[in-house]
Amino acid sequence: MNWYYAQAGQRQGPVDEARFRELLNRGEIAGDTLIWHEGMANWQMLREVHPELASPPFAPPHHQSDLIPRRASANRGNGHVWRVPQDFPRG
Predict the structure, then answer these.
(1) Which residue has the higher pLDDT, 66 or 28?
(2) Which of 1, 6, 28, 66 could form a disulfide linkage to 34, CB 3.0–4.6 angstroms apart?
(3) Taking the model in full, what pTM does it have?
(4) Highest mean pLDDT out of 15-19, 60-64, 75-79
(5) How far is it, in rounded angstroms, from Cα 62 to Cα 25?
(6) Could you tell me the strand order of the sheet in which 34-36 lies?
(7) Alpha carbon of 38 to those of 16, 76, 87, 90: distances in Å?
(8) Is residue 31 within 8 Å of 54, Cβ to Cβ?
(9) Where are the domains of the chain?
């Protein structure tokens, strides 16, 4: 399935599922991003279509260096996102 999304007031896409998830993981697509794919009647926010994707699970940082500032246009809250280190124990 190919997805389209809105960014800075412009339609982006199509992107395939793998690229869509990559954009989501990188924070370029968030819960309030408008998305659309063929078969949808209208553009909707990601959190309305896929609430499970709009709220990534919280994981506390290992070190202060794990706080990564986002660029100003993508800030949410305090302007930082949590990054889970590769060696962080899971599950």
Answers:
(1) 28
(2) 6
(3) 0.58
(4) 15-19
(5) 19
(6) 10-15, 3-7, 34-36, 44-45
(7) 12, 29, 39, 35
(8) yes
(9) 1-56, 59-91
Question: Which helix (H) or strand (E) is 4 found in, with range?
Answer: strand 3-7
SS3 80: strand
Q: Which CATH class is domain 1-56?
A: alpha beta
Contact between 64 and 18 under an 8 Å Cβ cutoff? The reply is no
Q: Which residue has the tokens 């809105």?
A: 6
Phi-psi sector, 77: left (phi>0), alpha (psi -120 to 50), beta: left
Alpha-carbon distance of 83 to 80, in angstroms, equals 10
Give burial (CB, 10 Å; 0-12/13-18/19+) of 9.
exposed
Instruction: Please say whether the beta carbons of 53 and 44 come within 8 A.
Output: no
